[in-house]
Design brief:
about 60% helix, mainly alpha, 14 helices, two-stranded parallel sheet
């Protein structure tokens, strides 16, 4: 009697090509975060990945499912949008909440309504506001040839992020090259616009991010900020500072394009991306919350299914009209 074949061993992690491409594109951003803010940035990233992986592993173990590589994308994005001074335990709590309540309670990978990284950040942003927006949340870049590669963290505390400095002191108060390169205070991975843009273009080229969402988000954000600035609305920034002085590029390329929580139809993606770009500009000017990108994306996630439904219904009506004619 022939021996029965042994059942195939289930892999611990299910690696998906689009997710690995996103992770690769973020490596330069991670290196830059270490250079600007010291090795503490790396250890925050490591902590977030460990606890994010454990959260999904424990949940999926009950269903005998492997951990999806998407969890590491969520962990990287979540860590890189945190202030460099965030306590380790707080970063761990944030990613646990993000993965558990932003993803796993909906059924796991491919079923979540909200972006897990944004869900986790919203939780700690509201629960521990001083650690996320207070004066001691921000660090000045280390500086020098080796920068943070020879330091655990920066010693100097910055009073504000670039957005706040420009809003208070006016255009030109921060050299434009610093906004592009990233030699400014801010969240760990959101300061270097040039690295984010290059990484974003890579994932768009490799089709790991939808270009329609990126383009419509950029146009919506720049257009709205320009209108507010030209109208001389109090607190409005010029479009150049708006897109380079905060989390806008990171939001457009990496956060709005989450393939699960974003709109799924082509027309819906244009509407969804534009909605997020417009909301980022409006929230930053008219609300008390400086984290415009985070709330804009969560609102976009909430409306994405409705947008897709309306687009599909419109197509059905147009098709029925053609048939009747």
């Amino acid at each position: 009697m022939a021996a029965q074949a042994k059942p195939k061993k289930r892999p611990l992690i299910m690696w998906q090509l689009p997710m690995t491409r996103v992770l690769k594109s973020l490596i330069p951003v991670v290196i830059a975060s270490i250079y600007f803010f010291g090795w503490r940035a790396f250890f925050i990233l490591l902590t977030v990945n460990i606890f994010g992986f454990i959260t999904e592993y424990v949940y999926n173990r009950h269903y005998r499912q492997p951990v999806s590589s998407a969890v590491f994308v969520s962990c990287f994005i979540f860590a890189l949008i945190l202030p460099p001074t965030i306590p380790y335990w707080m970063a761990a709590v944030g990613i646990i909440i993000g993965i558990l309540f932003g993803k796993m309670v909906f059924g796991g990978f491919g079923r979540n309504i909200f972006n897990p990284a944004m869900t986790g950040r919203a939780f700690i942003y509201i629960s521990f506001g001083m650690h996320m927006t207070g004066q001691k949340a921000w660090l000045e870049p280390v500086g020098g040839v080796l920068g943070g590669f020879i330091k655990y963290t920066s010693d100097a505390v910055s009073a504000a992020t670039p957005m706040k400095v420009v809003a208070a002191q006016g255009f030109g108060s921060i050299p434009f090259w610093k906004l592009v390169v990233g030699n400014i205070s801010g969240s760990m991975g959101e300061t270097s616009a040039i690295l984010i843009i290059l990484g974003g273009l890579f994932i768009v080229w490799k089709k790991a991010a939808n270009w329609k969402i990126v383009v419509s988000c950029i146009l919506g954000g720049i257009g709205t900020s320009a209108i507010l600035w030209l109208a001389k609305i109090d607190g409005a920034l010029d479009p150049l500072t708006f897109v380079f002085g905060g989390a806008f590029w990171f939001a457009a390329f990496y956060m709005a394009t989450d393939p699960i929580s974003a709109a799924q139809t082509d027309a819906g993606r244009w509407i969804y991306g534009a909605m997020i770009g417009i909301l980022i500009a409006l929230i930053k000017v008219f609300s008390i919350w400086p984290a415009g990108a985070m709330f804009a994306i969560l609102l976009g996630n909430m409306f994405a299914p409705i947008i897709d439904y309306m687009v599909k219904e419109q197509k059905k009506r147009a098709k029925a009209k053609l048939i009747n004619e």
